[in-house]
Amino acid sequence: MSAYAIEGVGLTRRFGGFAALDGVDIAVKQGEIRGLIGPNGAGKSTLIDVLSGRAPNRGGKVLLNGEDISDLTPQERRRRGMARSFQRTNIFPELTVEQQLRVASWAVAGADIDEVMDELHLTAMADVVAAEISYGDQRHLDLALALVGRPTVLLLDEPAAGLTMEESLSLARILRDLANRWHVTVLLVEHDMQVVFSICDRVTVLHLGRSLSEGTCDEIRADPTVVAAYLGTEA
Amino acid sequence: DPLRIGVPTDLSGTYATLGEEVMRAVHFAVDEANANGGVAGHKVEIKSYDTEAKPDLARRQSEKLVSEGYPILTGLIASGEGLAIAPLMERWGSIYVSTINKADELTGANCVPGVFRVNTQSAMDAATVKPWLAQRKEKKWAIVAADIAWGRGSGKLFAEAVKSVGGTVTAELYTPANINDFAPYIEQVKKSGAEGVWVVLAGRDAVNFAQQSKQFGLTDAITVAGVSFTTDGTVKTLGAAAKGIYGIINYSSTLDTPENKAFVKAWVAKYKSPPTNFEGETYMGMQVIYQAVQAANSVKPADVAKAMPGHTFDTIMGKLVMRAEDHQLLKPNYFGVVEDVDGTLRPVIKTTVSAKDVAPPVTCKMASK
Amino acid sequence: MALLAFNDVHALYGRARILNGVTFAVDRGERVALVGRNGVGKTTVVNTLCGMTRIAQGQIAVNGRVMKDLRGYIAAQNGIAVVMQGRGILPSLTVEENLLLGTATRRPGPWSLDKVQALFPILRERRSSPGLALSGGQQQMLAIGRALMANPDLLILDEPSEGLAPVIVDELAALLVKLGEDGIGILLIEQNISLIHRVAQRFYVLSKGAVAESGSLHDVSRDELKRHIAI
Amino acid sequence: MSTIAHGAAATVRRKPLAGAALFVTTAVALAVGVALPWLVPTKIAMSLLAQAMFDALLATSVGFLILQNGRVSFGQAAFFGLGGYSVGVLIARHWVAPEVAVLIAIILPTLVAFLLGLVIARITGVAHAMLTLAVGQAFYEVVFRWRELAKGDDGMSFNLPRHLFGLSASGLQDPAVMMVLAWTILVLVLFALALFARSRIGQIAAAIRDNEERARFLGYSTMLPRALVYAIAAFIAAIAGVLSACYNGYIAPQMFHWSVSGFALIMAIIGGAKFIIGPAIGAVVLFYIKDYAGQFAEYWPAIVGIILVVVTLTMPRGVVGLAATLWKMRGR
Amino acid sequence: MFIQILNGIVYGGLLYLLAVGLVLIFGLREVVNFAHGSLFMVGAYLGFTVAAMGYWWGGLLVSVVAMAIVGCMLDAAVFRTLRKQDHIVTVLVTFGILLILETTVTAIWGKAYLTYPVPRLLAGTVDIGSSPFPIYRLFVIAVSVAVALSLSAWLRYTRTGLYIRAASTDARVTAMQGINVDRLSLIVVGLGTALAGLSGVVAGPLLSLSPTMGNYILIDSFIVVVIGGLGSFAGAFAAALLIGQIHNFGAVYLPWASTVLPFLLMVAILIWRPTGFAGSRT
Ligand SMILES: Nc1ncnc2c1ncn2[C@@H]1O[C@H](COP(=O)(O)OP(=O)(O)OP(=O)(O)O)[C@@H](O)[C@H]1O
Ligand SMILES: Nc1ncnc2c1ncn2[C@@H]1O[C@H](COP(=O)(O)OP(=O)(O)OP(=O)(O)O)[C@@H](O)[C@H]1O
Ligand SMILES: [Mg+2]
Ligand SMILES: [Mg+2]
Q1: Contact yes or no for D312 and E89 at CB 8 A
Q2: For residue A156, what are the domain limits?
Q3: Which residues of C, range 135-194, sit inside 8 Å of E by Cβ?
Q4: A69 with A157, same domain?
Q5: CB-based contact (8 Å) between C100 and chain E?
Q6: Judgement on whether residues A58 and A157 belong to the same structural domain of the protein
Q7: Residues A122 and A108 occupy one common structural domain
Q8: In D, which residues are within 8 Å of B91 by CB distance?
Q9: Residue A159 CB partners (closer than 8 Å, separation 6+)
């Protein structure tokens, strides 16, 4: 087995003449939580899209546990253990919370959903159709759909957005737990620096479609270019 | 007990205008009979349902009429409707007198004891063409026909007729039903260099084709003739655009027989305008039913059916025989042209082809039970 | 006279009662935060103002006038601009067209296309790309820019920091403070405590469909506020 | 963290008919079917009921596609007609044993629909409706013009064989027998659909209907389940077509016509397309409304039109939707 | 050949006039308007009645104005009431309206086919490449091109146009910008229906009038709308011209398949691009 759970080599994505991703390399070790930060429009979501098979990848390669999965469909990637959440909530509006989590679990051999519902405070609204729960709860649900069946690689696009501060921290705890206990590898896009710096092993900074720098949290926090371009007073 | 006639017909579908004519003629015949004390003492009653010219609905409505006590049926328009109910006559214990269906099969391959046809079938129309064609000077003909069984059959027979009189067919165009724009076809007729065009279209298609060819100057440039094309209804709609169009006429109010003159007179007195071809044919169907009832001296469909084959009927077209072998009424057919008659345009009969000359061959193998 | 005042408002979605007597007010030049847990009904407050729920009881007054008929466009015509949760970008319209929509009420004021584009340069750079093509954070900027284009008296922002990079959140904080100082009322619905503290002067805590707590932000620490929200 | 008890006051999911209730209802409905010949007074009433059942099957097929796939079909008559034509042509030509003809007539449309489903199911909304319309009309044009197959536009009558599956086939044209048969088939179909909706594959299909992209990211191939729903829907339409063709002893291109599909859709919506039983109820209601309006000769369309407008304005969720609402209110 | 192309443009133009009304109404109210064909038919009958008195252009005006009013009423009474319902439910209502309109027209004008006169000004033919071509058909082309140009300009360059495009994408968000979407949709549905009236009058002299005349052209118009990419005006124009040509050349070169060609084209285009020519709507 490869040392890297998920690896992207030379990832590129263009819209017309504009390169949203311009040959980005990224490699995340087994069980690592990798933060992915960068200014708005840096290409973070696009990177997740390319890794997860939502967007076509022109010219680069995606490796999952050392195996080239560039040509696989999203469903095939999911069956190999890669799961993702979405920045724009992407749920099943007409199904109840429980129904959709159940459907999610069937895809991965009937995993248990009670734990996920519990952790993400969805139990109380198990029987409510998703269109009628609040935005924050929908964000929870989106994340829960990704967590069902404990994937080996998790690609999360701003999971803490829309959550209360306290919930963000509880989310951070869950992720840390997943990584430590189950060796789940996480690639985490997040603008909430408290979350990023509290749980990430390493952080990659993306800027204008390129990887600007990579390092431990402390290294990144100390990098003046990152502070100027991105962190501001959060540093 | 009354003579009860069921009239399933198209009141809201493709042929709703014909259905309207059917109903008018039926009402006329009923009122006339009842004013004279009924038919052989039986008061005449009718009931009608809308079939939308759909076979399955024709079946359902006919069945309803029969079950409600109206076992003598008439008035269906589309051939498919007639063909759909024909096989059911025996089971329902009813009879059907066809007055508008043109498909040869109805009294040919698909004939059954309970079905009788009073109107002209396609084969009879075809036999009418040749005598007319022989006397025309146009030698190059184009054909524009509806792409259905009737149009294809008529078109083919016309092409054969043209060849048999030494002419050529320059274009054979079959148009889908209910299209809006005939321009591409008109353009092709023009380009083919035809001296005449033979049109096998009915209803809306006939009107649209005639109107658009007038606009393109086709009608003025070459001879236009057709079958079912110069019905009274179409001519009325088209107005001046119809003038000078030739065509097969199955019935015309201008027909010069004493019976017809009396009928037209009574009709005009009631409706202010002369009867159309479909009205004439439907009326004839009612005449046939009445006389069969008189002959049978019964209103039971089985008795009426027995009285029909071989019987000679006294109709507005003269004395006509219901052929026993296939239940087709042997009637004459006509060829005419649209002309101004007393200030209104009407198809006027120019050539009469006798019943004997248009009689179709018998193809029916009636399983007589 | 308050710009916006809710007086004991009870509101329902279908049969589900979400607001249970909400009372609060925002005045000119005031920067007010509305906070509360997920699903407590903060967005419902905004939706109610925009006529998207059924009001069973209570009143909403804008500029001292009690609103009888609350339909979607009425709040905006009364000088209230909303940055919606989920942003409400029109995906097939260009960025510039999205901004121009903000001026539908034709209210005069300091904000123009130029000024908004100067504030968020990306909105100029991408002015002719469809709204759909923007990244999440860029869409948030567009939503804020569009609300500014309306030159509102009252600006309501439903979780505006969501998806924004920290530097931009800094800028947003400064902007909101400045707007308030210019006399505009600000109603800020937020989860980001630090942003609340930087921007707002007063706060209301929503809980169980009603205002459970309120006060001045000078008097409470971040931790206290967090505890309030968690009730 | 405390649970969010308050906010979750929103609508609670409609629990599907509990298992036992479903079986009991089905059993009762089947028993009613057996008793029908004693309940229905006249032959013509039986004949009408039988034909209403054909409509109910077709509408159920359309409704099922909406419910499970979220796709509006404007061409379900294609499978109705295909079933009818297959059985009619094969029996008339004596190409295969009549039993085989019936089987082919049901399997062929199902297969065709499955293959079509693989291609067109990814298209949604109005475009999908138009596509299915195109498919239906293409079949219509073919049988309309292919005179050698079944006499083109005139349609073709055919005689049933003496025996079918060892039973006397003439019963198929007897209103009493056909009424009971069609009723029983409808009940069984509805029962099977209810089971399908609760099954795993049924719920997965519902998820795919709701959000196809996310379903793929959960690991599902979305093509097969959708095509399967198409196939099931076509299967039901084909049964209706076979029954109708056998009962009438006649097939005509109108079986494929878009107006048949359109009316089936209307029936499904009037009844309530969000309920499995809705379309069947809608079909029966509309069938009798239309039959009744027939008394008003050519004015019947206006009567039906007014009823459609009134029904949709007053009960947008259909007859069954209204009934469900009333039932809920009674519970309060 | 050239004449055939011209004929294709005539039919395409007619389809465009009808389709663009469908697009307008679909955009704002998300209503798939099955009554559109019968509104076209009513427009034709209204115009016919006035034209039969000798005022051809008066008929045009009366029809357009009357249909605009009908459209506004339809929007206020029906579409507004149903705006929160599933789109499929509104289809049912429009179908009901279709049935009512057809029956009403039958009761007033009868079932017989009527022919609409050509205005004196546009009667006769001109020779195009030595073949006579009706002047009236050139007029049809002119009308549809004029409508296409002015409509796109209006939608592209005016504020109301912007609001309409916005409301067609998301009525809720548009309303929150202070735009009265109900009033906007009154304009839009009124306009769309007026265009149906206009096309009814314009088509009148080409076709015969009957209560069901709308049904024979509605499906072609729907195909145009779908191929164009729902809600797209430019797409509808391109699609209308394409279908017009297909219709003509199909009749000449592939007569046996001419009726299914538009369908086949639609299938091909949708499989290639599931949202049609210009579709980006989701
Ligand atoms: N469909 C598209 N067409 C054109 N450009 C696009 C499209 N989608 C994204 N982009 C552009 O690609 C760039 C990267 O977008 P992406 O969504 O990956 O940013 P991001 O890093 O996730 O930003 P954010 O933090 O705001 O979510 C942005 O400049 C965006 O405008
Ligand atoms: N359309 C709807 N129909 C029924 N109930 C709804 C609807 N929208 C929201 N709700 C319910 O109303 C409650 C309040 O929702 P709201 O969106 O106002 O919460 P919020 O405070 O804004 O939460 P968040 O912080 O997650 O955005 C929630 O419990 C939700 O379930
Ligand atoms: Mg992003
Ligand atoms: Mg909210």
Answers
A1: yes
A2: 1-81+152-162+183-235
A3: 146, 150
A4: yes
A5: yes
A6: yes
A7: yes
A8: 173
A9: A85, A139, A142, A143, A171, A188, A190
Domain boundary, last residue among A107, A129, A150: A150
Q: How far is D277 from chain E (nearest CA, A)?
A: 17
- Residues with Cβ within 8 Å of C121's Cβ and at least 6 positions away in sequence, in order, are none
- The proportion of chain B whose per-residue pLDDT surpasses 90, expressed as a percent, equals 35
Cα–Cα separations (whole angstroms), residue D100 to C134, D86, D95, D312 = 59, 11, 10, 43
Closest partner CB to C13 (pick from D2, D8, D10): D10
The continuous run of DSSP H or E covering C95 comes out as helix C95-101
Partnered with residue B342 across adjacent β-strands are: none
Please tell me the predicted confidence (pLDDT) of residue C231.
Answer: 67
b (16+ CB within 10 A) / e for B226-263: bbbbbbbbbbbbbeebbeebbbbbbbbbbbeeeebeeb
Q: Which residues lie below 8 Å from residue B161, measured CB to CB, with a gap of 6+?
A: B126, B129, B130, B133
Tokens of A101: 């989590």
Q: How many domains, in total, are found in chain A?
A: 2
Radius of gyration of chain D (CA): 21
A40 touches chain C (CB under 8 A): yes
Q: Which residue is closest in CA terms to ligand 1's atom 5?
A: C133
Distance CA A29, CA A186 (A): 9
Contact assessment for residue B16 and residue D298, using Cβ atoms and an 8 Å cutoff: yes
Whether A95 is in a domain gets the answer yes
| Ligand 4 (single-atom ion) residues, CB below 5 Å | A 135; C 42-43, 85
User: Looking at the structure, do residues A59 and A19 belong to the same domain, yes or no?
Assistant: yes
Q: Quick one: which atom of ligand 2 is closest to the CA of A164?
A: 25
Tokens of E241: 């011209």
Q: Is A100's CB within 8 Å of D3's CB?
A: no
Average pLDDT over chain A, rounded to whole? 90
Residue-wise pLDDT tens digits, D273-299: 889 999 999 999 988 888 888 777 778
Residues of the domain holding C34: 4-229
Residue A168 lies in a domain: no
Of the pLDDT bands very low, low, confident and very high (cuts 50, 70, 90), residue D332 is low
Q: How far is the CA of A133 from the centre of ligand 4 (A)?
A: 10
Which atom of ligand 2 is least distant from the CA of C36? 21
**Where on the phi/psi map is residue A150: left (φ > 0), alpha (ψ -120 to 50), or beta?**
left
Q: What does the block give as tokens for C48?
A: 């109610």
A108/A52 same-domain check: no
Extents of the domains making up chain E:
2-116+130-281
* Residues A68 and A156 occupy one common structural domain: yes
| Sign, Cα dihedral of B190, B192, B194, B199 | negative
Assess whether A144 and A156 both reside in one domain.
no
The ipTM (two decimal places) reads 0.89
Q: Is residue C41 within 8 Å of residue C206, measured between CB atoms?
A: yes
Is residue A59 domain-shared with residue A7, that is, in the same domain? yes
E and A touch with 3+ CB pairs <8 Å, answer: no
Side chain identity at residue A114, one-letter code: D
Q: What is the mean pLDDT of chain C?
A: 90
Q: Give me the residue from A83, A86, A124 closest to D5, CB to CB.
A: A124
Closest CA to A86 of A42, A127, A139, A128: A139
Search chain B and give the residue with CA nearest E252.
Answer: B184
- Chain E contact set for C133 (CB, 8 A): none
| DSSP bridge pairs for A13 | A21
Residue A226 belongs to domain with CATH number: 3.40.50.300
User: Residues D113-165: pLDDT tens digits?
Assistant: 999 999 888 888 888 888 898 889 889 988 988 888 888 888 888 888 888 88
Inter-chain residue contact E32 with D299, CB threshold 8 Å: no
> Which chain E residue's Cα is nearest to D131?
E267
D115 in contact with E, Cβ within 8 Å: no
How many domains is chain C partitioned into structurally?
1
CB E205 within 8 A of CB B239: no
In-domain check, residue A196: yes
Q: What radius of gyration, in Å, describes the C-alpha atoms of chain B?
A: 20
